Amino acid sequence: MESDDLKEIRDLFEQAEREEDLDVKLAALRDAISTFASFTADSSSDAGDVAIAKNLHDTYLRRITKQITSAKKMNSSTFYGYLSLLLFKPNFHTKQLLSNDPDMSDAYAKLWERYQGFVRL
After folding, report:
1. Is the pTM of this model over 0.85?
2. How far apart are the first and last CA of the chain?
3. CA distance 38 to 63
4. Which segments in the chain show pLDDT lower than 70?
């Protein structure tokens, strides 16, 4: 039986995946990643549940990344929100996922290329 913590993580990622509005998707994804990070950082979390949570994180992040990178339009505020969440301040596990998964790295690179005009240095 799935623990309440895993159910919450799964539900939050599912909510983010289902959401069509990119701003609402971003808020839901923030909640999901924050809950995941808290759960996996908690030393009292069951090791098996942590492994399942990491698999949920990876699976949903891959799916949601595909949705984000295929979005036809994204405003600059939403773009910066995704950059902040996924590229500038990712949790350790997200960094590992990006470095170990060429498809994810490519998707993030495409997202950056597509919207780099928003960035003013």
Report:
1. no
2. 50
3. 22
4. 1, 87-94, 115-121
Please report where in the chains the tokens 């959401």 appear, as a residue. Answer: 19
Which tokens sit at 20? 């069509």
Count CB-CB contacts under 10 A for residue 68: 20
% helix / strand / coil in the chain, to the nearest 5? 80, 0, 20
Identity of the residue numbered 73 = K
In order of 23, 41, 100, the CA distances from 105 in angstroms are 22, 24, 8
pLDDT of 117 reads 66
Nearest residue to 63 (alpha-carbon basis) of 9, 118, 4, 103: 103
State the pLDDT at residue 104: 77
Backbone φ/ψ region at 80: left (φ over 0), alpha (ψ -120 to 50), beta: alpha
